[in-house]
Amino acid sequence: MVALSNTSYAQEEQEVSSEEVLLSSARNAVALGNLDDAATRYEDLLRQYPRSTKGLNEYAGILAQQHRLIEAVTQYEALIRVDANSTDARIALASLYMEMKELGFAAEQLGKALAIDPELIEAGIMLARIHAWNNDFEKATEVYQEYLQGLDTSDPATRQLMVALLLDTRRPQESLSILAELREDDPTDSTVLADLARAHTMLGNHVEAIGLVREISSLDEIDSPALLELSYFMRDSGNFRAAIELNERVLGASSNDAAALIANANLHLAAHLPNNALQILASAELDRDSRSYLQSKSLYHSMAGEYAHALEIYRRLLEDNAADFEIRLALGKLYCQSGEYQ
């Protein structure tokens, strides 16, 4: 019996060691910046150890970095099947769903994460924001009261999340005191300044907002995603000048920033300058198969009266994701614009 037990322990140690060796190999490829090689190594690992929680989690992260979102979703779902109580996996999966505009699926995962641990601040704020984006402010308030009321906002990261929630739920006045504290901590934080500009715009303080946009544009270091989000907000608020200035600042920092190029094309489309938008969409930096590129291209075709081309793109996007309600709404608008009401 003792010999069998020792053999069993030896085999177990060998198996654990083998898994760790494969993990180390994949991590080394990541450290060297070879994400394609790393992905291949994680695939090799998971073929041998399909229930490796570390492997599933890290491989999903690599796929997300490569914008292989559907594959990343598959890996996080596999991880949750192995470890249903992994709140980190559920929050990461929800973040992917949000990026894919699958807000219903994201809300489901966040709700399950909060059921496991009601003190997950990030999950609570994300869930409340999703309800706000869906204009369901009653549900957003319910989430706030259940999970976030009385929240300790001494941590700067928590305060930043609270600001986002307050702005999403149309309470800009309440956000100003928190933003003032964050700005005092770091006067050059572009994310804080962007949120402050958004708050002042919502309050109708346009002079203050424009001043903040110019202050952001003069910064040496910026948070590009935060500036692009503010650019879209300014565009939707009718302030095209501020939107373009913000977008140009992002492109000044990185002329091949795909998200900024798409945002720039969308700004020109909103300003009814389709030919300018088409020139931007011709950039070699853009992925012709990405959802954001195809959306912009379909808007161009729609504005140019090329409804058949726009329709073809929307149908292609729906083939990839039949539940993409944003695309379905855009398709409905296209039918109305083209006179096809049936």
Structure description:
The chain has helices at 2-31, 35-48, 53-65, 69-82, 87-99, 103-116, 121-133, 137-148, 156-168, 172-185, 190-202, 206-217, 224-236, 240-253, 258-270, 274-281, 291-303, 307-320, 325-338. By secondary structure, it is mainly α. Among the domains are: 163-253, Serine Threonine Protein Phosphatase 5, Tetratricopeptide repeat, CATH 1.25.40.10; 259-342. α3 (53-65) runs antiparallel to α4, α12 runs parallel beside α14 and α13 (224-236) packs antiparallel against α14 (240-253). The model has no long low-confidence stretch (mean pLDDT 87).
Number of strands: 0
The CATH topology of the domain at 163-253 is given as Serine Threonine Protein Phosphatase 5, Tetratricopeptide repeat
CATH superfamily of the domain at 163-253: Tetratricopeptide repeat domain
CATH architecture level-2 label of the domain at 163-253: Alpha Horseshoe
Mean pLDDT across residues: 87
> Cα distance, first to last residue?
77 Å
Rg, Cα atoms, Å: 23 Å
List unreliable stretches of 5+ residues: none
